[in-house]
Amino acid sequence: MTTLAAFKTFTDGLPVQDQLMPVLFVGHGSPMNGIEDTEFSRRWTKLAGEIPVPAAVLVVSAHWFTRGTRITAMDFPKTIHDFGGFPPALFEVQYPAPGQPALALKTTQLIHSAHVELDHDWGLDHGTWTIVRHMYPTASIPVLQLSIDYTKGPQYHYDLARELYALRKKGVLIMGSGNMVHNLWMAAWDRLNDTDYGYDWAVTINNTFKTLIESGDHKPLINYSTLGKDALLAIPTPEHYLPLMYTLGLQGPADNVSFFNDKAVAGSLTMTSVKLAA
């Protein structure tokens, strides 16, 4: 079966739905959330029961930063252990979810603002599998990743996301995975296990982000450098923030905003996550 024919077969079973699939931004935090029973991982498990079962999951992970845009297009993406210094048990985890090459091809056809390359080398990095394995532990739902072009700014990514809107009508769960506040250089590692510990500036800017998201005022979030010093401390490098642009770019007029896992970690990181659902 050709790839195009396979896509038609895949979409034959995905009628346009009356209700749009929700869109998520998930603060993924430490890779250890992938194997530990934490308040964050428990919330991911609960979240899966609150939304329709997706036909597929498409994740924009902070940990796939590329020149140009790529999408995983293999039948079975590998589990990537893209970290160091953690217990052996974390490196032993495999999440054998299938891919969906036909959906990958269709996604490239939806995006007109950029040439999207079909990728057969990457896989599922920890920005994806640490979350999705808690949501869908049987690994039976196809999972794809879309990379972040590091040569482009937030407006570019926000606009690109809008071109993916049609996938929401087909039951595809699109998820940005990163952290709104992510400054590892300033982290208080000795406070990592505190229930909720954030520096004043981290809490202040995180609340600003939330207020803007709730009000649908995306322009300051796109141009985050205009939000002052706190924003620059929160986003010293953009890779963990840019997945939020994909979530916001997919917001529709009927979507309601809600937050979960809304806590600070180690002073300079926040796990604050967003659900947009009609």
- Overall number of structural domains: 1
Helical percent range? 25-40%
Largest sheet strand order: 6-2-8-1-12-9
Q: How many individual helices?
A: 11
How would you classify the quaternary structure? single chain
Low-confidence stretches: none
CATH superfamily membership: LigB-like
* Rg calculated over all Cα atoms: 18 Å
CATH level 1 name: Alpha Beta
- Strand content bin: 15-25%
Give the N-to-C terminal Cα separation.
36 Å
CATH architecture: 3-Layer(aba) Sandwich
Mean pLDDT: 94
| Total beta strand runs | 12
Q: What string, H for helix and E for strand, traces the elements in order?
A: HEHEEEHHEHEEHHEHHHHEEEE
Largest sheet: 6 strands, mixed
| SS-based class | alpha/beta
Shape: globular
CATH topology: Protocatechuate 4,5-dioxygenase, Chain B
EC number: 1.13.11.29
Protein name: 4,5-DOPA dioxygenase extradiol
Family: Belongs to the DODA-type extradiol aromatic ring-opening dioxygenase family.
InterPro entries: Extradiol_dOase_DODA (IPR014436), Xdiol_dOase_suB (IPR004183)
Brief summary of the model shown:
This protein has 278 residues and is an alpha/beta fold. It has 11 helices and 12 strands.
